Amino acid sequence: MDLKHIFRPYILACLVALILALPTFINGAPFFYEDSFGYVARGVGPLRAMGGDFRAGHILLRDELGRAPTVLSATMPVQPVAAESKQPKYDIVWHAGRSIFYSVVTYLSYVFAGFTGVVALQALLVALPITLLWKRCLDLPDRWLLSASALLAFATSLGLFVGLVMPDFMAAVVILISAMLLAFRSRLLIIDMAMLSAVLVYAASVHDSHLVILSILVVGAWVLYLAGFLRKIEEQGYAAPALMTLALCAGLIGSQAYSALAVHITGKPLLRLPHLTAHLVSMPLGADYLNQKCPQAGFDMCLYRDKLPISWIDFMFGHSLWGDLPYPEQQRISNQQVSLLLTIFKDRPVATTVAFGNDALKQLILISYFDLDQARKVPFFSTQMPPAMVNQITSSLLVRYPALLEIQSLVQQTIVLITLPVLVILGFRISATTDPLIRKWRLMAGVVFLGVVVNGFVCGLLAFPYDRFQVRVIWLIPFLAMTGWALVYSRAKEYLQVARTECHA
Length: 505
Fold this sequence. Notes:
With about 500 residues, this protein is mostly helical. The chain has helices at about 5-25, 35-40, 45-50, 80-85, 100-135, 140-155, 160, 170-185, 190-205, 210-225, 230-235, 240-265, 275-280, 285-295, 310-315, 325-335, 335-345, 350-365, 375-385, 385-395, 395-400, 405-430, 435-460, 465-470, 475-505. It starts with a helix and ends with a helix. The relative contact order is 0.11.
């Protein structure tokens, strides 16, 4: 096997990454969310604990220790500071669910290449599985790949999310790589398997919701194997579920390492955001239960039942309830969230099932850019970010012309609505095929579709229905349609050429 065959997809992946990053470059600034700088700055503490301290370009980030990083060159050796070495514990709390791995990788990318480097890395992490699927798994033409990449960048949510400084874009990567391993493992080279496995581990590690999604996909993979279905597609059907399981275990180990690091640096255990409690108290269901059963119920939320119901965002991040409480009280409420849910379910099983079921289904159809409006977030950014960064954001295309984001949102929603029936038609067309490659694609498409649904249910149940949670993965639906029709058309051309050759012979 020649080197050109081995490395050509990786060279193409760099070109695809450039295309995917074009919307961000045209915008003139990356896309930010309220949590973005918290994610980036959280990487400072662990690096400082390991003896690293960097100049972050011309911008000083406010780190998780409540102090600006020391201004040093990235190449200068760091001199130990005696005063800090005597005080390894800091009065700061790290949140569970928001992995330190994304923070460290993103912060280092920012240090050495600015936010342009951050966007380039995120685009490459998505471009790699897209390109390997297109070239190695489906063996489709390069020009089609570049055209599909442009459509993904400008007509779906992918172009926005590779430029958003948040780990959300990796949720779709977890789904796509899992589907590729299950359906096309035998068509991948060892180097492909190693790269995809490494990216899968990282993608699963950057947020707890990704670990939950991967866990469900792993269970589904083993069910398919035990039912004998995978063995009809792949000779060693157990290999892909085993790889996915190893990736999940690595992600879980990373999560535990993050917990230990938090205790080592801050002296406090991780604080888990009380998503379940926030979900409950935002509904009449939770508010009514607490008003009727407290104080006998014994939950700390009984002390605040006069403020209920309250929106989940105001509950967690506002200044009127959990977000403004002292750490010990926050920890107690957080630790009680599962027991509160189970107690309410035991008392009102039908109402709880209906309420959460409705929210899970609602999450599946929330795919707008409502919560990603950069112009609306500028006042918040002005209080959190350095002036130079705020100026770059305010001069960006989507802030100067906010209607463009609404148009983009409408376009990608329309594309999704069009491609769903297209996929149904394609499914009927290939339902009886015996072509092994198309059968592999069909398995991959099923796993991807399952992953998109699982993402909606996980976010809708464990957090709250919110557009950003589902729109981060919805680009996979148009991508499936692109790959499916491209594959069917390509195979039809091959069969036609074979038939013509036989006729001439």
